[in-house]
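Retro notes, item 3 of 5
We never archived the inputs for the fe (ii) ion complex last cycle. Fixing that now. Sequence and ligand:
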Amino acid sequence: MTEINNTNSSEFPRIITGNGRLAAFLGANKGAVDAGLADAGALLFRGFDVPDPVAFDAAIEAYGDPGFTYEDSLSNAVRTNVTPRVFTANEAPPTTEIFLHHEMAQTPLYPAKLFFYCEIAADTGGATPLCRSDWVLDRLAADAPDFVARVEAEGVRYANVMPGSDDAGSGQGRSWRSTLSVDNREGAEARLAELGYSWEWREDDSLRATTPTLDAVRALPDGRRSFFNQLIAAFRGWADSRNDPNRAITFGDGSAITSGNMAAAIAIADELTYDLNWQAGDVALIDNFAVMHGRRPFEGKRRVLASLVA
Ligand code: FE2
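Structure as it came back at the time:
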C-alpha cells in the first residue's frame, strides 16, 4: 500500500513510490496528493505502471482537474499534441538548455499545475531541474532587498520577437500566428490589444511584442510568497536569431533589468535546484506557482511529455 508522507516539509521533490496503475492511485488519493503538492510544490510518482502516453492521459483524467490548453495559451515553445491532454514538452534541439521558469509566467495566462511523464529517458543528461521559488524569494529578499522591493512594487515586462512561421530550432520559436491563434496581422493586433500588449512589426514578418506589466512575486494560498516570473529563463535563454536577452526584460517602468540585478537570483536558484533524473515511467506533478522547472541538454532519444492543468 502506497502512502504519501506529508510530514517532512523539507523533502523536495516529494517522491511517492508505488506500483499498479497511476490512474487508479490518483483517482483514489486526490486529497492526499493535493495536500502533498501544496506542501512540497513537486511530487514524483515512481514505480507505477505508466507504459505509454495513453496511460499518462488516463492518469491526468483520473486526477480530475480541468486542462489548460496549449492552443489557448500564449506559450512561446513549439509543441505537438500526442493525446488530447498530452503534448511534447518542447521541440527545441537537445543541445539547447531550457532555463528555470514558471510555465507561461511571461504572459497574463498561465496554468496552475503541470504534469510531466518520461516515456523514454535520455542516454545522457536531460534532467528536469526543479527549484522552489518561495525558497528563492526568501534568500533573494535577504541578499538583494532593493531588487526584490522594486520588482514587487513595479512588476516586470517581457519583450520577445516571434517569427512569422514556427522555428523549431529555437526554444522561443512559436510563430505569432500560432501563439496568438490568428492568421493575419489585423487579428494579431486585436488579440494583443485585448491582452494589453504593445507591439512592433518587423520587415521579415516577425513581431516584437511587449507584455503589459506583470507581477513578479506571487502570494501562495498559505501565505508564502514565490518569485513567480520568467526573469531567469528570459534573461538566460531568450537568445536566437531574433531575440537579444538584454532587451527581453524590464522593470515595470520600462528601464532595463541588468545582469547585475539578475546575478543574485540566478546564483540562488542554481544553488537550490534539484535535478530530476528521469526513469522511464516516471510522472511528476508540479505546482506552477511555487516551483520553477527547466530542461538540461541531453544526448539520445529522450521523450518527456507534458500536460497543463488549469
Ligand atoms: Fe516549461
